[in-house]
Design brief:
With about 450 residues, the protein is an all-alpha fold. Helices cover about 75% and strands about 0% of the residues.
Length: about 450
């Protein structure tokens, strides 16, 4: 029994657990920093908009580097990109931390340099890990796995404001940067030792590869770009509102440290719980993927409009939680549609482009919301409702799941975790691994062979 399990490879859900550490740590890159940004701005004499560039530098550099990471992952393997990227992410945190520690008010440029390095590392983390999850799971289990994957992203957003506020309160604002390195190394080891890539067709050389990716956009461009837009807007609004909340709590109410982190936590906790739950619910209801995205957008619009209309603290937090629920309802469906739109040899590029536009949304959220705050407290939420409405229109009229999803029988999943040839020889089908199979003892030999 143990030998047959080892032959089939590590339990997929154990591998998913290791891969879920990747979006968890990646989201710390911005969310954990948000509670200490006001402290950094005061020490360095920065405006709110300039302080928000600490988020922008990270996200834009990730967006620029992400296409290269996607190609390398499709060509040479997911793990050979994810693991070094995690280590580079930690190195960038060390550089920014040392700049804040040693240079103080004069260290803003070096802090930005470290954030750029972190962003380049982040380019090869969560988007490539999402493609890895798409390789491991197919059919009805894929939407569940991607819901869990997105929930780990949300869990990072839940933990990170409290963790960032706690570090800033007990230590100092620049200590947050060293925390990145402290978690990046063990998570990189977890991915290296606990995951094994399923056999799949590798991407062709660069010229042919990018031609094939371009062909995907020629065939599916309009619905695919609409999915990208919906995911970008969701993250743009979320991080913009979180930045608004952090600044508002400290400057208007004098709330700082852990109490501020707890208040920031609630909308992202709602998003994480709903993302996990909707992934389970949609597992055998793939026809509801688009309706789930539409329902999530309607809730997010309702939440932001409620805040804009009702000027009261209880309405403010209620609206944030409703908007968080809406975001959590959108993302598993969008992730599944995007991940299922390409074959395994182009999947990392498609998920990387998706990650890039999400990073861009995160990049411009804080500085833009910082500028909008100067025009009044309700303005950012009117703006949020408007841009979410554009996303709703794109989803209603442009997203066509039947045009996006690669059919299971067309060879897109050959060599995947649930189909394809077994090691024993060609033509033999691999036995399906039961969906919520409990992990056995930690299997040996889980390192992928170097190709």
């Amino acid at each position: 029994m143990g030998q047959s399990r080892a032959a089939a490879g590590p339990n997929r859900w154990l591998q998913l657990a290791a891969l879920c550490t990747v979006p968890f740590i990646m989201v710390l890159g911005n969310s954990m920093l948000i509670p200490v940004l006001p402290d950094m701005g005061r020490v360095m004499g920065l405006s709110k908009a300039t302080t928000g560039l600490a988020v922008t530098a990270f996200s834009l550099s990730a967006g620029v580097a992400i296409a290269v990471a996607g190609f390398l992952a499709d060509r040479y393997g997911r793990k050979l990109v994810v693991v070094p990227s995690l280590l580079l992410y930690g190195l960038g945190g060390i550089i920014s931390g040392l700049a804040g520690w040693w240079l103080g008010p004069r260290g803003f440029t070096m802090v930005m340099a470290g954030r750029v390095i972190q962003g380049i590392g982040a380019a090869g983390t969560a988007p490539v890990a999402m493609a890895f999850v798409g390789d491991l799971f197919r059919g009805s289990s894929r939407v569940t796995a991607l819901g869990v994957f997105e929930a780990s992203n949300g869990l990072g957003k839940v933990v990170s404001p409290i963790l960032g506020a706690l570090i800033g309160q007990l230590l100092v604002w620049w200590a947050v940067f060293f925390a990145y390195a402290a978690v990046a190394a063990p998570f990189a080891l977890a991915v290296w030792w606990l995951t094994r890539e399923p056999e799949r067709q590798k991407a062709p050389p660069a010229r042919q590869y990018f031609g094939e990716v371009l062909q995907i956009f020629r065939q599916k461009g309009i619905p695919l770009v609409a999915c990208f837009w919906a995911g970008t807007v969701a993250l743009f609004v979320l991080f913009g509102v979180l930045f608004f909340l952090s600044e508002h709590l400290e400057t208007e109410h004098g709330i700082d440290g852990v109490p501020k982190g707890v208040r920031i936590m609630w909308p992202v906790l709602a998003m994480s719980v709903v993302s996990f739950s909707s992934g389970l619910f949609l597992r055998h209801r793939k026809k509801l993927l688009k309706p789930a995205v539409i329902a999530g957008l309607i809730l997010a619009i309702a939440g932001t409009l409620f805040i804009a209309f009702v000027q009261a603290d209880w309405a403010f937090y209620t609206g944030l939680v409703v908007a968080g629920i809406g975001t959590g309802l959108q993302l598993p469906g969008l992730n599944n549609l995007i991940t299922s739109s390409a074959r395994s040899e182009q999947r990392a590029m498609i998920t990387s482009i998706y990650g890039a536009v999400r990073f861009i949304g995160v990049a411009f959220g804080p500085p833009l919301y910082g500028a909008l705050m100067r025009r009044g407290e309700a303005i950012p939420f009117w703006f949020s409702a408007g841009i979410l409405a554009s996303s709703l229109a794109a989803t209603l009229f442009l997203i066509r799941p039947e045009r996006l999803v690669v059919e299971e029988g067309d060879g897109a999943e050959t060599g995947g975790a649930e189909s394809g040839p077994q090691d024993g020889g060609p033509g033999r089908s691999r036995a399906a691994i039961p969906a919520w199979e409990l992990p056995a003892d930690l299997p040996l030999g889980t390192r992928a062979p170097l190709h």
